[in-house]
Design brief:
14% helix; two-stranded antiparallel ribbon; seven-stranded antiparallel sheet; alpha+beta
Length: 153
């Protein structure tokens, strides 16, 4: 049986702020350099859900809601959930309200799925969504006069 080596970080391992952990131990990930990765694909049925203040895209597969690649279930009893109009309820034991749903994908931006204008603009561009006028930044306003000019005259 091969014994795996584990590293405990110690103060002496740091030299000018850098750990001396071997490079093969550190997971550098796969940086994409993008703010948003394409989520919605043509030919699939997508919806926007808002559960407990969290807004996300979900996919409908065979009548079931799938979020992040997994079938969504009730957060209280773990039972199946179902769409009833514009609301989602547990169809299992507890029958509780889960949140709201919309087939209009533009609701992702309207419901606050992304808070910053920069991220909203990027998501709208990649997912081909329309930004609502209320989501656009206010126009830059330049006054015709300044208080400083009043004091100079």
């Amino acid at each position: 049986m091969r014994k795996t080596q584990s590293y405990q970080t110690r103060l002496v391992d740091f030299e000018e702020g850098k750990p001396s952990i071997p490079d093969d131990i550190i997971d550098h990930g796969d940086p994409t350099g993008r703010l948003w990765t394409k989520t919605i694909h043509d030919g699939e049925e997508w919806i926007v859900c808002e559960f407990d203040g969290t807004v996300f895209f979900a996919q409908i597969i065979d009548g079931a809601i799938y979020a992040h690649g997994q079938r969504a279930s009730c957060r209280w009893c773990g039972g199946p959930i179902g769409i009833h109009g514009s609301k989602v309820f547990c169809e299992g034991a507890c029958k509780t309200y889960q949140g709201r749903v919309s087939r209009d994908l533009n609701d992702y931006l309207r419901w606050g799925g992304a808070r910053s204008y920069t991220l909203q603009r990027e998501i709208a561009k990649i997912e081909h969504l329309e930004m609502d006028e209320s989501n656009l930044p206010p126009p830059l306003y330049e006054s015709n006069w300044s208080e400083l000019e009043e004091f100079m005259n």
